[in-house]
Amino acid sequence: MLIVLAFILLFHLIGAVMLFVATIHNAWWVVSPAGQDAVYADLWLACNATCHPLANSHTAAATYLQVIQAAMILGTILCCVSFFVFILQLFRLKQGERFVFSAIIQLLASLCVMVAASIYTAENHSFHDDSLKKGSFGSSYFLAWVSFPVTLSSGLVYLLLRKRK
Question: What stretches pass through the bilayer (predicted)?
């Protein structure tokens, strides 16, 4: 049982690290013009040699960008809270009970990540200025999509897991 618990904790921590990197790293959108330095854009800034805010990111027309930012931050926070709740429940629950509360929090975290990545997929060309139009999705975008099934399966494992001897 100790080995199973170690794998569950490791799986959860991998999901949390993936969410942190996807939220913080500056590579949601990448433009690589020929002969020039690549331009990387994340949810807040576009950077090449210097960083500048995304065009119109503070206006009402770009509220979906603010929703993406909020959903990714909320998903990361919920994933961390779920981990701490799981640790608390590990020592507080009676034998045979399930980790339902930590599972619900983890499933909400995966829902937030899915919402953020889906909105970014649908609206990514709307908030990029003309210099960023001809780009492609970056590593942080793909990491966000990979972290969705990781957090979802982690939440489902918590839901099915019973405390045993």
Answer: 64-87, 99-122, 142-161
Sign, CA torsion 98/91/111/60:
positive
Q: Does any domain span residue 30?
A: yes
Number of domains in the chain: 1
- Burial level of 31, CB count in 10 A (0-12/13-18/19+)? buried
Residue 118 structural domain:
2-160
Token pair 């001897």 in the structure block, residue: 165
**Measured torsion, CA atoms of residues 129, 132, 136, 137, in degrees rounded to the nearest 10:** -60
Residue with tokens 């909020």: 70
The DSSP H or E segment spanning 5 is helix 2-24
Q: What is the pLDDT of residue 76?
A: 95
**CATH number for position 84:** 1.20.140.150
* 145 confidence band (pLDDT: 50, 70, 90): very high
In a domain, 165, yes or no: no
